[in-house]
Design brief:
Blueprint (H helix, E strand, L loop, with lengths): L1 H40 L3 H19 L25 H14 L10 E4 L3 H24 L6 H11 L6 H15 L1 E2 L2 H5 L8 H7 L1 E2 L1 H14 L7 E8 L4 E10 L2 E5 L7 E2 L6 E8 L2 E6 L13
Parallel strand pairs: 2-3
Antiparallel strand pairs: 1-9, 4-5, 4-8, 5-6, 6-7, 8-9
Helix pairs in contact: 1-2, 5-8, 6-9, 8-9
Length: 304
């Protein structure tokens, strides 16, 4: 746990400080003895000065922290949002450029193939996409220094959270900004209906929404921040506990798919997701469903 780790670290720091204090006192006693002997032996002041300086330098060197050995380096956990701000963007950009070349060979989300699907879910997604297209026209006017509604500026402010960043830093900061901008609220409470998919402006105006509302805002903002359409998807999962459908965003960073879930503080790799079954994926190509591995490669039957 974090508290235990912090306590052990503090104790270790205290022990180191005590050891340094002990070394300091020893060097002070040694210096006093040398100076006393110098006085009794009537050495020249220049010799005394040299000895004193040498002792001071030796004591200072003893008090400097030891250089970390390879076994002491703590690996950086890229999953946590709080760490995203401290990533070296230059190195991250190099990794991002190198990963771009292999993205086409990267495994699909959850390692599963997909097939097109029609129905109620596809209709809801088409309606949201139409709203997103209309909002893009408003954002274009904002960028042209024309009248810009407050809700549009709110969306641009979230995009700006990732400005000047790349890779994991950009995704992590935008993910956190969206989570902080919305208060989780069920459709029953907010709209009086069982299921209501809000376009981004509507969610950012009320500052309330449920899982698909978080996912839709993250999807459009990440695209607006510069991620490729091939690297951002909305995924619909079937949670096992509790048994319910849940929406999240999948973003590909350095060739790996990360799941941006408003219920989690961490960005989790798709291969590490537990307790959920992938059901559908939504993007600019429409709505598709994940195909179980035992059906991968089979041709979809009519009506699917």
């Amino acid at each position: 746990m974090t508290i235990c780790a912090t306590h052990e670290f503090c104790c270790a720091q205290t022990g180191n400080a005590q050891a340094v204090d002990g070394k300091t006192r020893s060097y002070r006693l040694a210096m006093w003895a040398v100076l006393s002997n110098l006085g009794r032996g009537k050495f020249m002041y220049l010799g005394a000065g040299v000895v004193v300086v040498a002792c001071i330098l030796a004591g200072s060197a003893a008090m400097l922290p030891a250089s970390p050995q390879s076994g002491d380096v703590v690996p950086f956990d890229a999953g946590y949002l709080e760490a995203a701000e401290f990533i070296d963007d230059s190195r991250q950009a190099v990794r991002q450029d190198a990963a771009t070349e292999s993205d086409q060979q990267a495994p699909p989300i959850f390692g599963m193939e997909t097939e097109p699907v029609a129905g109620e879910l596809a209709a809801k997604w088409r309606a949201v996409e139409a709203d997103i297209d209309r909002e893009q026209q408003v954002l274009a006017r904002c960028r042209a220094q024309e009248a810009c509604p407050v809700v549009a500026q709110n969306r641009l402010d979230i995009v700006a959270e990732g400005a000047g960043r790349s890779g994991l830093a950009r995704v992590g900061l935008i993910n956190r900004a969206v989570d902080l901008a919305i208060t989780p609220t069920s459709d029953e409470v907010q709209w009086g209906v069982a299921d209501h998919w809000s376009p981004p402006f509507e969610t950012l105006q009320t500052h309330r929404g449920d899982c698909e509302d978080y996912a839709i805002v993250k999807y459009v903002v990440l695209l607006q921040a510069g991620l490729s359409h091939n690297d951002v998807k909305i995924v619909i999962l079937r949670n096992l506990l509790p048994k319910e459908d849940h929406a999240a965003v999948a973003a590909r960073v350095d060739g790996q798919w990360l799941i941006l879930d408003n219920r989690r503080l961490a960005l989790v790799r798709d291969a590490e997701m537990v307790g959920s079954i992938p059901k559908f994926v939504l993007d600019e190509d429409g709505t598709r469903r994940f195909v179980p591995s035992n059906r991968a490669g089979q041709r979809p039957s009519a009506g699917r």
